[in-house]
Sequence to fold (594 residues):
Amino acid sequence: MIRGKLCDGEMSRIINYKKNMVAFQGEPGAFSEQAAKKFFGSGVKVLPCRSFEDVFESVARKRALHGIIPIENALFGSIHQNYDLLQQYDIPIIGEIKLRIVHALLAPCGVKLKDIRKIYSHPQALGQCDLFVRTLKHAEAVAAYDTAGAAKAVKEQKRKDSAAIASVDAAKVYGLQILRRGIENDHRNFTRFLVISKRKPLPSRNAKTSIVVSMNNVPGALFRALSVFALRDIDLYKIESRPLVGKPWEYLFYIDFEGSVNNERSAQALRHLREITATMKILGSYPHGKTVGGPKS
Amino acid sequence: MIRGKLCDGEMSRIINYKKNMVAFQGEPGAFSEQAAKKFFGSGVKVLPCRSFEDVFESVARKRALHGIIPIENALFGSIHQNYDLLQQYDIPIIGEIKLRIVHALLAPCGVKLKDIRKIYSHPQALGQCDLFVRTLKHAEAVAAYDTAGAAKAVKEQKRKDSAAIASVDAAKVYGLQILRRGIENDHRNFTRFLVISKRKPLPSRNAKTSIVVSMNNVPGALFRALSVFALRDIDLYKIESRPLVGKPWEYLFYIDFEGSVNNERSAQALRHLREITATMKILGSYPHGKTVGGPKS
Fold:
């Protein structure tokens, strides 16, 4: 191995490269990568990670400046695991984007629908497309590490009887043909992704803030908590209670509200909220995200 | 085929049999069946169904008096599909039960852990146990129709290299050995099940009520909606907002609150709520459910 001294220009390019890197869970062509490209632009450098925890670790250890994680799906609800990681790591949310999830059946060129015996994909994608999968009488659904990973495996195996369920982007990445597009059971399927980074978020006029609070279920606790926003005319965008296992009278609440924590009105509401909750964690203030990937986008 | 006239006693036995039947999604040994047995007692007659929609159809067409459906999981959130079916069918919720989900690796007798090459299960269960599955280097996860269905298939195939992830009950149902117990990533895993029936619910002193409302996102709409409960000192047990796809400013809200609709105070709150929401559907009033299936139960 040749070790050379890097000139300043090269070092700066390497640093910038890492700085602009976005960590995501999955293989190239995954929906998270698609969301990263819609958020940062198609030229963004990405760092594929094996798990959501690896995404957080990559940002914590400065292997990537940003991370992108799915937080809720319109059909399957909130991804509590990522809420747990947001609470565990001190990496704030700095942005969001909502991506319409369009699944496609991908196979090597020349393979026909009637030849398919095995369909590889991430367990959740197999579930989201099970009505379509059941119409292929001779095909068996096989769980894979992720949708794009399934597409990669199908390409590498070069078998004439295998297909993958993945994004249309994965077809381009792995040179597969699209046998069917839009095979998800429910076309109202979209996922909201959050962008995380240790870089201080910029204040924004069009901001929202996400928090997690825990409360003991004293009567009216939730209402009192929400009153701190109502008393200050602060609008709420999301509220979700999550019962805690083994603690039947304790709850976590996820709340998204209007405004940035830099804003005095929000700061007052949060101070008030801290008085009446057992624990509170601010996950970040960030600009409202766009919805992308619909039929016309 | 011999057709005979049934005597009154036989007919009444058949009617009672159907009357006591509980429809659930999955094969015998599924977690939904386990929940039904914990709710109604181990002698209850059950009707396995292929889909959640079939559970609702079975109750609607009087093939079963009751149905049981999962509605939320402590790790994976609310099952919006079943909320949609509760809104679509006029079959009220009459009870609930919370079941601790313990996954086990099941195989035919004589099969050892190191021999396993294929692990069959429902996609969600494979996801819930993926940390364990990854430790078995030579094993491939294969998606199956449901957890108990996977156990059944493994029993029928009699292969020496296959196992299933399913409940401990499924091991008993299909005569399989338990290779590992409690293989789920997160032991705080429980699912809340709802019991549905067209039989009029009995009023109860220990009741809760579930509703779904839709609202346009005018500032403070959610707070005004919750005020109808606070003004009457009615406690809230669950609240969850669900954004509607393609309608970025419209939301569904799932709300569970204290008391039965038979109760005058609840009726007043609901009349008040109807004034300020776009749509409202009462899903049912029912007694608070127990949590069962923990390490000690």
Remarks:
- Chain B has three domains: 16-101+189-200, 104-181, 207-287.
- Chain B touches chain A through 48 residues (CB under 8 Å).
